[in-house]
Amino acid sequence: xxxxxxxxxxxxxxxxxxxxxxxxxxxxxxxxxxxxxxxxxxxxxxxxxxxxxxxxxxxxxxxxxxxxxxxxxxxxxxxxxxxxxxxxxxxxx
Amino acid sequence: xxxxxxxxxxxxxxxxxxxxxxxxxxxxxxxxxxxxxxxxxxxxxxxxxxxxxxxxxxxxxxxxxxxxxxxxxxxxxxxxxxxxxxxxxxxxx
DNA sequence: ATTATAATTAGATGGTTGTCTAATTAACTA
DNA sequence: TAGTTAATTAGACAACCATCTAATTATAAT
Lengths: 93, 93
Known about the structure:
Order of helices and strands of chain A: HHHHEEH
Radius of gyration of chain A: 14 Å
Largest interface: A-B, 25 and 25 residues
CATH superfamily of chain A: Winged helix-like DNA-binding domain superfamily/Winged helix DNA-binding domain
Number of domains of chain A: 1
Structural class of chain A: alpha+beta
Helix content of chain A: 40-55%
Strand order of the largest sheet of chain A: 1-2
Strand content of chain A: 5-15%
Oligomer: homodimer
């Protein structure tokens, strides 16, 4: 896992909001754009950073690109944070 | 909590290593510096970012500044990540 | 008061980020 | 083959970041 890019990706409120949106189901950039006050190229930039960090996955469906969460990387990151802080990570059922 | 500065702070390997060091007990910059290949002003800069993010606390003891972890902010951050990813956060005994 | 030690602050520099407009690629439709 | 829609890529720009050297502040010791 690329910790740097993961935390870097999480350090922007727009990107965290994208993740929250995706939590409720897969979405295309065209569906997301209404939730933000930025242009589509900026949104595309943010999606690219999330993709670099492996936090999201993109799949083409016709004209659309459908973005989904990549939950495993997220859970690894939480695990790493718990590790840094020394809290026992014995709750992975 | 200032999510931006917390994640920004975590996005640097030197700063994550500082946190791991502090996990084993409070330390002064002079004690930390040997673990890194950077100058003391750079270390001071990193400590300042961690302080801005409320991840560490500094207390003067004579000539020394003693840095400690601020665990509560860390746990809030983990909680926020679990929230973003929709995982139930029912393991806080 | 002077000197020494611990650490920060100031200032400079090269690299990265967030945003925009303009141009391009990709896929569908008629 | 155009024309349309969806989205990315290119290029520019101001702001921020990691690092360094040099200067400064704060405390202690003689």
